[in-house]
Design a protein that fits this description.
Blueprint (H helix, E strand, L loop, with lengths): L2 H22 L13 H12 L38 E3 L2 E7 L3 E6 L4 E7 L5 E4 L2 E4 L15 E3 L14 E5 L3 E7 L3 E8 L6 E10 L5 E3 L2 E7 L18 E6 L2 E6 H5 L17 E5 L1 E7 L3 E7 L6 E7 L5 E7 L3 E3 L4 E12 L2 H5 L22 H18 L2 H15 L1 H16 L1 H10 L4 H14 L9 H19 L23 H16 L7 H19 L4 H26 L6 H16 L15 H11 L10 E3 L5 E3 L3 H13 L1
Antiparallel strand pairs: 1-2, 2-3, 3-4, 5-6, 7-13, 8-9, 9-10, 10-11, 11-22, 12-21, 13-20, 14-15, 14-17, 16-19, 17-18, 18-22, 19-20, 23-24
Helix pairs in contact: 5-6, 5-10, 6-13, 7-13, 8-9, 10-13, 11-12, 11-13, 14-15
């Protein structure tokens, strides 16, 4: 097997193995055993307190004895206030919903938490229980909690009960204020919402009601629930919704999902290669924390320049719930004074422009866009590719057409190396007789065989690996587009036309994969493979299209569309090259004969160096004549030199001239 074949097969097989590994070997999310949560609970407690148990959202009911008796009546007692409008009462406490332009937000007085954030964009839907429902960015197991923005005060001179009933002080479309009071402190939680944007604000204020200073240490937690019914990553489910906790600390993003925390997932999966293993406990400048749902993000960005914060990502006891929290250093609150912590709150789709607009201190970007998992070594391709897709979408208004235009641009940028590769393959095809001769001559001496082959390639300026170049160029683009489709919300549930209603999902009727496979097979038929034997060429002709067709059956339709259009363009290019090479020369008739004579002489050995495609032109007729003059034995070529009977040599220029020469010999 030649080096070219080995390289092609290696690239194809490695690509297939990489994709198969990513899809088939990622573990399915499974809830931990009910009795195995003790260790996780202890670790979670340590993560929240810096080593002391009994803090955070997971404290048991026994710790409530440390809580001071609230000075106000629990808000669960039904009261009517005309200012509040309709209010829902349940065992979960007092709840109400704010109707924004882009979402419906539901709050509860139980710890002053966010219970639901339901997106209103009609394309942001999912299937639950066999029904298509709007996406709720607050996911909890059977609506039991824990909820978002749970607040606790570990290692403080006061405590806040886990399920403290806050009083709803004020409510409007853009601002909600909760308050809880005890004999020592008054805790106020303020939510500020933007009617048209996913960006808002969150503030926690603690007022010291005593006559002495109080030590306070604030902890705020976000939670993300992994539904156990979510299928594992695979061909039939390339983009599962994996609940993930994010911690951006000291300029680096650390991400963990439930499988990664339990150590049941490799570092690379379809979700990305930025996934670490085990819990996270990081100390330093915590830029932000968040919960990631692939296309959507809930993020909390602390204001200020504190560099002694602690970020923790852990798995809650007995549940498939990922908890990510930020713990602030202890601060003293003087008597009668207040301590406040302000945050930027982001809840919504992961759109690059909206994410980049979130700041930490001053004009410093929070870098929320790091949550988009393009892949560390593909970002340099994926980000410009996404920008180009957006540009084309704004022009044509269809993401499928935008992908086609992207294919045309990429094809134009890679046209020159692809053209050179095709020229190299055509030249290799003309050198095939000489290649076969060298192989036969040195079949028992591999070292000499390789030397002669390399010498032949060098003389004729042929790159034996040129045929691999188009695929090598396209492969990083395929992977970058795959990541873009799987992690960019702009393409989420975006249709093309007809039966393709979601470019990020597989073709439901497998039409595009079959068309792509057929076009790839047609391309293989017309592509010269001079370095392959008949059996090897047949294997590549059927194996490569077949393998890609099978893979594309379950990969995104947008990626299949790109490869299909690119294959059609490559097919047209190869067809043009073949027709151009096969076109008859427009020079003297001797040029045609000379081309044939040079070709046959190349395999004969006397003056028979094989020529490049540029050498197979009319100038070869002189080479053919000189070869005939120096030859003392009859030539086996169909064209050559003949004697006119007077000692002069006459060069025949066609098969008919050769026939007339033979007739004159018989007459004499």
């Amino acid at each position: 097997m030649s080096s070219t074949v080995r390289v092609v097969l290696t690239v194809v097989i490695c690509t297939a193995l990489l994709i198969v590994w990513q899809f088939f070997f990622a573990k399915k999310a499974q809830p931990p055993p009910a009795g195995s949560g003790t260790g996780s609970a202890a670790r979670r407690a340590r993560a929240g307190t810096g080593g002391k148990a009994g803090t955070g959202a997971g404290r048991t009911a026994g710790t409530a004895k440390r809580a001071e008796a609230p000075s106000s009546q629990p808000a669960s007692q039904p009261t009517r206030d005309p200012k509040l409008g309709p209010v829902t009462y349940s065992v979960e406490g007092q709840q109400f919903t704010v109707d924004l332009a882009h979402a419906r937000a539901t709050f509860s007085n139980r710890n002053g938490t966010l219970r639901h954030w339901v997106l209103k964009d009609p394309k942001y839907t999912e299937k639950r229980g066999g029904k298509v429902v709007p996406i709720d960015l607050v996911q909890t197991p059977a609506r039991k909690g824990p909820w978002q923005l749970v607040t606790t005060f570990p290692e403080s001179d006061f405590s806040l009960p886990d399920n403290a009933r806050f009083e709803l002080v004020s409510k409007s479309r853009t601002q909600i204020v909760y308050r809880w009071s005890s004999s020592k402190v008054e805790v106020t939680k303020t939510f500020k919402l933007d009617n048209k944007s996913a960006q808002g604000a969150f503030e926690i204020s603690v007022k010291n009601k005593t006559d002495r200073g109080l030590g306070a240490r604030l902890r705020v937690a976000l939670h993300s629930y992994q539904d156990p019914s979510t299928g594992k990553t695979g061909f039939a489910n390339p983009y599962p919704r994996l609940a993930t906790g994010l911690c951006h600390v000291n300029g680096e993003l650390q991400r963990r999902n439930a499988q990664a925390i339990r150590g049941t997932q490799s570092s690379c999966s379809a979700a990305g290669c930025g996934m670490g293993e085990g819990e996270v406990r990081a100390v330093g400048k915590v830029e932000w924390i968040g919960t990631d749902d692939r296309y959507f993000l809930t993020a909390l960005v602390p204001k200020g320049d504190d560099r002694d914060r602690k970020c923790a990502v852990a798995l809650l006891s007995g549940r498939s719930v990922v908890e990510v929290s930020v713990l602030f250093a202890e601060r003293k609150i003087p008597p009668g004074k207040s301590l406040s912590k302000r945050f930027t709150l982001y809840i919504g789709a992961k759109k690059v422009g909206a994410l980049d607009a979130v700041k930490t201190v001053g004009d410093t970007e929070a870098r929320l866009a790091d949550s988009i998992e393009f892949g560390s070594w593909l970002q340099f391709l994926a980000r410009p590719m996404l920008a180009l897709l957006k540009f084309f979408y704004n022009l044509v208004g269809n993401w499928g057409l935008a992908i086609i235009l992207l294919t045309l641009i990429v094809k134009g940028l890679t046209l020159y190396p692809t053209h050179r590769s095709m020229q190299s393959m055509k030249t290799m095809q003309k050198l095939k007789p000489k290649i076969d001769e060298i192989r036969e001559k040195y079949k028992n001496d591999k070292q000499r065989l390789n030397q002669e082959m390399m010498s032949l390639y060098k003389v004729h300026k042929v790159n034996p690996f040129g045929g691999c170049l188009p695929m090598v160029i396209q492969m990083p683009i395929w992977f970058a587009l795959y990541r873009t489709l799987g992690n960019t919300v702009e393409l989420y549930h975006s249709p093309f036309f007809g039966w393709i209603t979601d470019l990020t999902a597989p073709d439901p009727y497998y039409i595009l994969p079959i068309l792509m496979g057929a076009s790839m097979f047609a391309q293989q038929i017309i592509t010269p493979n001079p370095s392959m034997s008949g059996g090897q060429a047949k294997l590549m002709k059927y194996f490569l299209p077949g393998m890609f067709t099978v893979m594309m059956l379950w990969l995104p339709a947008g990626l299949t569309l790109y490869i299909f259009v690119n294959t059609l363009l490559t097919f047209a290019h190869q067809l043009y090259m073949n027709k151009k090479d096969d076109a008859p020369a427009t020079g003297p008739r001797g040029g045609v004969s000379g081309r044939a004579g040079g070709s046959s002489g190349g395999s004969g050995g006397d003056g028979g160096k094989a020529k490049t495609s540029a050498d197979f032109k009319p100038k070869l007729s002189s080479s053919s004549s000189s070869s005939a003059k120096s030859a003392s034995k009859p030539s086996s070529s169909s064209s050559g030199d003949d004697d006119d009977g007077n000692g002069r040599k006459k060069t025949t220029t066609s098969s008919s001239s050769s026939t007339r020469g033979r007739k004159r010999k018989r007459k004499r």
